[in-house]
Every structure is written in structure tokens, then in C-alpha cells.
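Morning F.,

Quick status update on the modeling queue. The single chain you submitted on Monday has been processed. Sequence for confirmation:
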Amino acid sequence: MASPAPFIRRDRLWHPPQFAPGYKTSVLRSPRRALLSLEAALGELSGPKFGHDMLAHDDNDLIRNHMVSGEAVGERIIVHGRVVDENARPVPGTLLEVWQANAGGKYRHVNDHYKAADDPNFGGCGRCITDADGHYYFRTIRPGPYPWRNNGSDWRPAHIHVSVFGEAFAQRLVTQMYFEGDPLIPLCPIVNTIPTLAARNMLIAQLDMGAMVPFDSLAYRFDIVLRGRRQAFFENRTEGL
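C-alpha cells below.
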């Protein structure tokens, strides 16, 4: 039996401060007192788990998994990478879910009133399970940027939301993935809550021409680190799984 890897304490300066005035809608949600670290309860470590046989064959293909009259419209891309722990060991059998805006920057949601056009053939969500090497793969449309009411009208860079499940549904981490070269990234108040450039860069997917599909799709690689000093930033639980 292999001995467990050493626990690597996270670097709290790697993550955003609890109070970030530039991200205006977060101000009233910021805690007024020091945070407490609590041990995980039994219900968080056990309970219902996602069944691998519940995935449809095209769940990871957002170009086709909601099509009504044809494929989704927009720049066709592949997003792939690995889910690893703080020691770069793969995390196999992990459920990933993604959701995003369409090519015009509009979500398929009744409360999204942005004037960009709807795409009836794009549902904007998908899921897959990591393989034995921790690798995952999605095919989708590159999402468009969109305005939001921060400082009057800021713009969110193109991004994809990523959810990573652990051994039970209560063990869920959520982050966002941005795209290399997007000029809106350094202007985004949400991105800029992360204090260091190195930490921000961990949320930026890199163009991967080696994985592109000729005459079809560009590819971007986005690796996810679950714990340790240099873990990816998770907006709902910064301590990791």
C-alpha cells in the first residue's frame, strides 16, 4: 500500500481577499469577522454519488447536445486538460460540469436580458468524467463577452464555468476558465480580486495547436489543481476538496 502524500498547506495570499471593493456586488457579502475552518461532516464525505452510467454519449459535446435544427453557431473549440492534486497525481473518475454563454455572450436563462441573440441549438451546459490519467475533454462554442452592472457597465471576458465533484455531491468546487490573449481579462474586476498574476494565469486556458482539429476546431488546455499552495482558485470553497 502506497504511503499517503504529505499535506501541503495552502497559501492564503494566493487567493482573493475577503473584501474586494472593485467587485461591487461582493461588498455586502464579504465577511466582517475572521473565517473559521471546520472539519468536514460525515454527510459531506459520503452520501449520493454520481453514477458513471448516467452520462449520455454526447454530454461533453455542447455543439450538438442540445441541437434542434442543427449544430450550435459560433467559433468551434475543444477544451481539455487534467484534474490533479497538489503533487500532480491524476484524479480519475471525477465528474466535471461546464456551463457558459453562447457565442453572442448570452446565457440560456430566463433572467438573462442581454440583447445578444439566442441560439436555439445551444443549451450551454455539458459534463464528462475524468479518465484514469485525470484527463477530460469537451467540445463547445467559444462564449462571447457580455456587459454587467459593475461600475456602470463593465464587461466580463469570455469564460466557461467549471464544476468539479468529489466523492459525494456535497464535495463540489466551482471555478471559471478564461482564454489566452483575451484583452478583457486584465480589465475584469472579478479576475482582479486575485492578488497575483501567477494565480490569475492559472485560470487562463492556453491555446493548444497540437490538439486542434484541422478545418474544424481550435483547442485550449486547462489543467485544474485541487489542493496545495498553488491550487486553482475555487469561488465557492477556496480550501479545495
